[in-house]
Amino acid sequence: MEEVKKRVLSMLQPTGTFTLGNYFGAIKNFIPLQDEYECVYAMADLHAITVRQEPAALRQNVMKSYALTLACGIDLEKSILFLQSQVHEHAELAWILNCYTQFGELSRMTQFKDKSAKHADNVNAGLFTYPVLMAADILLYQADYVPIGADQKQHLELTRNIAERFNTLYSPTFKVPDPLIPKTGARIMSLQEPTKKMSKSDPNVNSFVSLLDDTDTVIRKFKRAVTDSEACVRFAEGKDGINNLMGIYSCATGKTYEEIEKEFEGKGYGDFKLAVGEVVADTLKPIQEKYNQIITDKAYLEACFADNAMKAERIARKTVSKVMKKVGYIINK
Ligand code: ATP
Ligand code: MG
User: Which residue of 25, 69, 71, 300 shows the fewest CB atoms closer than 10 Å?
Assistant: First the structure.
């Protein structure tokens, strides 16, 4: 009997070029999951417009993000990688689930509070109902697991509540998903303000390393990274800058903090920063080579979009049909 694999679902927002944070915290962990699970990945371009996007830039970012994700090792022989806007079931199910989600529940989402403060001139309804679209993204695919960072815990909890509510009101319809906390997941902090997470939308380009930064840029950004005045490479409370650089070095080399402390015993921050910069640049080089091949082959990318949208829709349609019947809609034969 063929073994039925559990399904994993995860989406990335194509709102800029992926950073080292997105790589070590998310994309890199997606690669080994492909062997153990049936993986469904997507570019969350519907979510992206909750914040104003310049159309040409959005189009570019979607192309780039898709090509970069492939370059990082998502294998289309094993996984699905599609564009959210090309599978209309996402918008369809989101509307229905909006009617099974309470205003009060959405008001409690901390990301809404944060983002509406950050974009006070554009607090649109989409920003408010974003977690319902995210619930639809997950529930459409009957996902068993959703790999998430700490920033998405509250949204996954809401997804579970919506699923359970619908299942109780009608009959079992949605799989209630569990979080998948990556074994090696790391939270990478800003190089300029190491108490804040590294983020691709940070206006200060020195705060993040983009996966497309060339070697000189990578090394320069690490040289400028904020540290402390102790001049001793060790992991300790209050040494946020050094702790972060040790975290990055550990992710890139697989070395433990103890091994790193030993390696840089008696050495200054200059040597350490250079070593981190070099190992990160080496990590990025093969990704960039692959990316450059993919991004220049527009016909290949377009074929991937079409093929993967079709595969995703096949799964998503089943769920929407089921939901429509339960709600009481008439479906044409
Ligand atoms: P934005 O600034 O537009 O929110 P972002 O860099 O936070 O961009 P997201 O698209 O929100 O990126 O997140 C994509 C994935 O990367 C998520 O799984 C998120 O948990 C993870 N991630 C984002 N930033 C970091 C980070 N600094 N360290 C580890 N993981 C991260
Ligand atoms: Mg984010």
Answer: 300
Tens of pLDDT, residue by residue over 289-307, are 999 999 999 999 999 999 9
Residues 84 and 68: their CA atoms lie apart, in Å, by: 17
List, by residue number, the catalytic residues: 115, 197, 200
Residue 241 one-letter amino acid: G
- Rounded to an integer, what distance in angstroms lies between the CA atom of residue 160 and that of residue 139? 9
Task: Name 53's Cβ contacts closer than 8 Å, sequence gap at least 6.
Answer: 15, 61
Residue with tokens 């699905």: 80
CB atoms within 10 A of CB 171: 9
- In tens, the pLDDT along 55-92 reads 999 999 999 999 999 999 999 999 999 999 999 999 99
Going 96 to 101 to 107 to 112, the CA torsion angle's sign is: negative
| Dihedral sign (CA 114, 115, 121, 127) | negative
Using most ligand atoms within 8 A of CB, pick from 53, 112, 199, 205 the residue to mutate for ligand 1.
199
Nearest Cα to Cα of residue 249 among 274, 214, 223? 274
CA of 199 to the centre of ligand 2 (A): 7
**Length reported for the chain:** 333
Summary mean pLDDT of the chain: 95
